Amino acid sequence: MSEILLQTHALTKQYGHQKAVDNVDIHIKKGAIYGFIGRNGAGKTTCMRMICGLAKPTSGDIEMFGYSGNELTKVRSRVGCLIETPGLYPNLSAQENLKLKCKLFGINKKGYTEEILRKVGLSDVGKKKTKNFSLGMKQRLGIAVALLNNPKLLILDEPTNGLDPIGIEELRELIRSFPAKGITVILSSHILSEVQQTADHIGIIAGGVLGYEGKLNANENLEQLFMDVVKSNHREG
Ligand code: ATP
Questions:
Q1: When you count CB atoms within 10 A of the terminal residue's CB, does the N or C end of the chain come out lower?
Q2: Does 191 sit in the ligand 1 pocket, CB within 6 Å?
Q3: Does residue 40 sit in helix, strand or coil?
Q4: What pLDDT, in 10s, does the model give residues 100-114?
């Protein structure tokens, strides 16, 4: 599992005078679940938005699947992302939402939306409109949308936000199942216990700076590590 699927080189995003992401070099191995952690405003979402192509870096490079610069467009379709709230049509059912997205992506495969709904544990929601979904159901459907183009890299921004403990556990199981299906995962969170139980590698970002990156060992004192990194990169976010 040593092949690097994605790396950034001095990735930077500046808003006015503030460097929201400051010279970040991350390294994501193929088959990893990479937990990207940091306080509120640390720069996690901004970094993920740039990786997904939703925000343009001020400077620096992103390299994934061996491509970088203008050639990144060739591999964007291998990336699925759920950043902030998933864009769903509230008056449509889960199935209808997915069918519509399939049309937009030019996917025409019989039984495909049923297969994806099964993957995320939503095969029994029937005709219920998504506006009546619980938060956890909406998150699952958001992941289903991100999975539609059969991504090899899945980027999930705070996927367990607002979920109850059972919802978190279920989503954790789902996320943990992805590497075996050939999907590398980056997930952001500020909940350390969450990352500890899901990720096998971590990056800690503080004040836009990547203060630590490495393998997450089972006996790691993540809280202590996090505090040390945040304190040594002290800067208001
Ligand atoms: P959270 O855990 O609260 O979601 P985060 O680590 O994802 O935080 P970001 O959303 O990346 O943090 O924000 C990093 C910094 O960049 C913050 O200070 C934020 O206010 C700023 N920022 C983000 N987007 C913009 C924008 N479009 N314009 C100006 N500043 C922005």
A1: N
A2: no
A3: coil
A4: 999 988 888 888 999
